[in-house]
Amino acid sequence: MARGTLADTYVAAIQHDLADLPADTTRVGVVRRPTSWFHAAVDENQPALGPPADLLESMRHREEDMKMQGLCEEGAHNAAWDQVGFEEAYREHLETEAKAQAALATLEDRLAAGESVALVCYENTEKKRCHRTILREVLEERDP
Questions:
Q1: Burial (CB count within 10 angstroms: exposed 0-12, middle 13-18, buried 19+), residue 93
Q2: Global pTM value
Q3: How many domains does the chain have?
């Protein structure tokens, strides 16, 4: 059986029919605290694959500081990302947190079995960096 495809998108793209996903793609949310409207746009959510709460909190504080210094929302977000070492911290979370490891293994098995999956969160990555992109890279790196 052919391996399933792996994609990623953001919730607003799904809500506004802008996400270019094949019809049989399972939309897997990867957010720690989904809203009811987020749940309505995805087939399931894997909160263990969302960034840790403390990382999100430090990111939010740095982003607010950057906005106060005059940076636009996207600029503040991306600068804060670098300052808190977001990518490294998130990758470490995926490598060391047991629930994240289990959720990754499940997604790997589903992809290997031929299921097509789209990772979904809130950020539009055309302007902002996002954990979803790192998660997709990690899954692609682990592909046998």
A1: buried
A2: 0.92
A3: 1
